[in-house]
Structures are given as structure tokens and as C-alpha cells.
Design goal:
Helix content is 58%, strand content 21%. With 176 residues, it is α+β, with helices and mostly antiparallel strands. It has one domain. It has a five-stranded antiparallel beta sheet with strand order 3-2-1-4-5. A hairpin with a 2-residue loop joins strand 2 and strand 3.
């Protein structure tokens, strides 16, 4: 009788551990996305009960841009950019959270696309593009909020749009 109780107890313990280790992460976990301010990388982690059970690090357009212009790689400075609750946690906690570093990560994407367009289509000199990337990377590294980086991007987008509009208007007037 005593052996039977011990066997049932151990079996129950193994079943509970199996559920906690394999099933619980799927139904009671958190997905977090981190942005590396120094190198422009994105790290995604899935955790459950404080244990990370999946992690990946991916390059972004901004990290490729930093490598293209051979800017110094620095030790990673990971900041929480985005969080999402998975499974049962959705009923008790906010489902999707975007943090200030999430806005910075999205601005780096816009900036890298803008630099790529300018160097390819508008014949922006490589040295000038490198200087812009260097200045923007310093803004990203030092900013706790995204206001300076945002102002820098908006200023250059408006400037580029106004110049493109002016060029198109002049070419239309020349055709008349």
C-alpha cells in the first residue's frame, strides 16, 4: 500500500513538472522584444515563469547600415522595446505594450530606408551619408526618449520632400 502511494505521488509529480515545463509556456508566457542601441540588433525572447525558453537575435536594416559604414561595434545595450502576453496571461495583463525604445527602433528603420533611398536615387555622397548615420547613431545611443531622433528624421524627410517637389515643379515648368 505504501509503495502504491509513493508510485502515485511520484507519477503525479512527474506529470505536474511535464505540464509546467512543456505546456505552460504555450499558455502562460510572455514575448519580449529588445532593441540594442549600440548595434541596432533586435532580440526576441519568450519566457514563462521567469525562465527564457526561446531566444533569437536578428539583424535589422539599421544594423546593416552601421556595418556598411564601418561604425564601431560596441557591447550590446539591450532595451525593452515591446512586450506581449501569451495564452492565459492575456486575460489578466495588458496584451501589447510598446515602450519608448520601441519607437526608437521604428525610427531607425525609417532612417535606414531614407539613407538607402538618398544614396541610391538622389546621389547622396557616401561621406555625407556616413556623417548622417554617425550623428543619428549618437542620437539613438544617448536618447532615453525618442524626441531628438524623431525631430532629426522629420527635418530631413521634410527637407528631402521639399527639394524633390521643387525639382519636379522646375522640370514641369521647363517642359512648358
Amino acid at each position: 500500500m505504501k509503495k502504491k502511494v509513493i508510485i502515485i505521488g511520484v507519477s503525479f509529480l512527474v506529470a505536474v513538472l511535464a505540464i509546467l515545463l512543456f505546456a505552460a509556456p504555450l499558455f502562460w508566457g510572455t514575448s519580449k522584444v529588445y532593441f540594442d542601441l549600440n548595434n541596432g540588433l533586435v532580440k526576441k525572447q519568450w519566457d514563462s515563469f521567469g525562465l527564457v525558453y526561446w531566444e533569437s537575435i536578428k539583424e535589422t536594416d539599421y544594423s546593416k547600415l552601421l556595418k556598411k559604414f564601418e561604425l564601431n561595434e560596441a557591447p550590446p545595450n539591450w532595451r525593452l522595446a515591446y512586450g506581449e502576453e501569451l495564452g492565459g496571461r492575456r486575460f489578466f495583463f495588458p496584451q501589447n505594450l510598446c515602450y519608448s525604445y520601441g519607437r526608437i527602433a521604428s525610427m531607425t528603420t525609417a532612417f535606414s530606408m531614407w539613407i538607402a533611398m538618398c544614396t541610391e536615387y538622389e546621389n547622396l555622397p557616401i561621406q555625407e551619408a556616413r556623417e548622417k548615420v554617425l550623428y543619428f547613431s549618437e542620437l539613438v545611443k544617448k536618447s532615453g526618449d525618442s524626441s531628438e531622433a524623431k525631430d532629426y528624421i522629420i527635418h530631413h524627410f521634410n527637407k528631402g520632400f521639399n527639394e524633390a517637389f521643387k525639382t519636379n515643379t522646375e522640370s514641369l515648368d521647363a517642359k512648358k
